[in-house]
């Protein structure tokens, strides 16, 4: 870690200069014609942004707000960008998280490394009152109206160093300038709200049959997870009374092939996250299940924050 600290100092310095250049207008940035909310994080790896995006879209839909979502589409291999993603888009082309967001919310989702192009296409094809950017907190080329940071309560800020000596893209002091901080999985002094991911049932990948998780109590299963914190998924199943006989963690945004599952016990049910399931549908077996989760936010500031977003739209 200490050997990499000079490189971290250089990374921090360059990031600071770049941010200042955008703030002073020396580097140009794009102002969309509708309000933009960025849901991001300070550290690399999964912190729970996608459940927050889905939760936020659903909350705004209940208020009659027409929402569109943009994403960089990390891990996608589309032939051309920007790309409109829907629930039937191949996750290899559209990325697992954008496909999942489109599937769960039904809103238009556009991916591209160029976020301005994403927004321009989104506004061409859909009447949006507001746009949510999945990730992009450090993408200062895109102007935004509201910033939300999601942090993992278990991992926090790691060793407190920025890349490459640590996991941070920006120092924790950046939290002082964002609008809302969500702690995923537990309380944090810095957070405005605590998010809990609530599992209620399992869905069969082949038949879409739903079963309450309680029906799998004391059952022996296998489990895989290709998310930012796989152990969180395995622990969740154990807490629900399900016996995880075998588990395998994959890297985040893992592309799956049938050969990766050949050694699994075919007689034992396989559980996976919903994000992994969108990539396994084509070769799923009859006893493969995914566990969707619903985000629940706790905190006195949640309602007033949603009201603040509505006021932005109504201006």
From TrEMBL:
One of its GO terms (cellular component) is plasma membrane. Its EC number is 2.7.1.130. Keywords: ATP-binding, Kinase, Lipid A biosynthesis, Lipid biosynthesis, Lipid metabolism, Nucleotide-binding, Transferase. Transmembrane segments: none annotated. It comes from the Bacteria. It is an enzyme of class 2 (transferase). One of its GO terms (biological process) is lipopolysaccharide core region biosynthetic process. GO terms for molecular function: ATP binding; lipid-A 4'-kinase activity. Pathway: Glycolipid biosynthesis; lipid IV(A) biosynthesis; lipid IV(A) from (3R)-3-hydroxytetradecanoyl-[acyl-carrier-protein] and UDP-N-acetyl-alpha-D-glucosamine: step 6/6. InterPro entries: LpxK (IPR003758), P-loop_NTPase (IPR027417). It catalyses: a lipid A disaccharide + ATP = a lipid IVA + ADP + H(+). ATP binds at residues 43-50. Transfers the gamma-phosphate of ATP to the 4'-position of a tetraacyldisaccharide 1-phosphate intermediate (termed DS-1-P) to form tetraacyldisaccharide 1,4'-bis-phosphate (lipid IVA). Belongs to the LpxK family. This is Tetraacyldisaccharide 4'-kinase. It comes from Pasteurella dagmatis ATCC 43325.
């Amino acid at each position: 870690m200490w050997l990499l600290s000079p490189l971290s100092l250089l990374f921090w310095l360059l990031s600071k200069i770049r941010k200042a250049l955008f703030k002073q207008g020396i580097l140009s940035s794009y102002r969309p014609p509708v309000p933009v909310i960025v849901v991001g994080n300070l550290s690399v790896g999964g912190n729970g942004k996608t459940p927050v995006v889905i939760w936020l879209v659903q909350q705004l839909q209940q208020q009659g707000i027409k929402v569109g979502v943009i994403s960089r589409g990390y891990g996608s291999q589309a032939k051309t960008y920007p790309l409109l993603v829907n629930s039937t888009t191949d996750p290899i082309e559209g990325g697992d998280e954008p496909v999942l967001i489109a599937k769960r919310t039904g809103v238009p989702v556009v991916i591209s490394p160029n976020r301005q192009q994403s927004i321009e296409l989104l506004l061409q094809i859909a009447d949006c009152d507001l746009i949510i950017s999945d990730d992009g907190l450090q993408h200062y080329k895109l102007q935004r109206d509201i910033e939300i940071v999601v942090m993992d309560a278990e991992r926090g800020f790691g060793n407190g160093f920025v890349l490459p000596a640590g996991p941070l893209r920006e120092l924790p002091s950046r939290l002082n300038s964002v609008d809302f901080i969500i702690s995923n999985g537990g309380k944090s002094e810095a957070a405005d709200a605590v998010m809990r991911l609530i599992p209620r049932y399992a869905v069969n990948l082949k038949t879409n049959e739903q079963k309450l998780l309680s029906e799998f109590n004391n059952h022996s299963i296998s489990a895989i997870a290709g998310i930012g914190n796989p152990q969180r998924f395995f622990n969740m199943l154990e807490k629900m009374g399900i016996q995880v006989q075998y588990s395998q963690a994959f890297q985040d945004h893992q592309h799956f092939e049938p050969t990766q599952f050949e050694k699994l016990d075919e007689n034992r049910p396989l559980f996976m996250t919903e994000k992994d399931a969108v990539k396994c549908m084509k070769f799923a077996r009859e006893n493969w299940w995914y566990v969707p989760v619903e985000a629940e936010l706790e905190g006195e500031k949640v309602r007033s924050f949603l009201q603040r977003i509505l006021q932005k739209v109504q201006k």
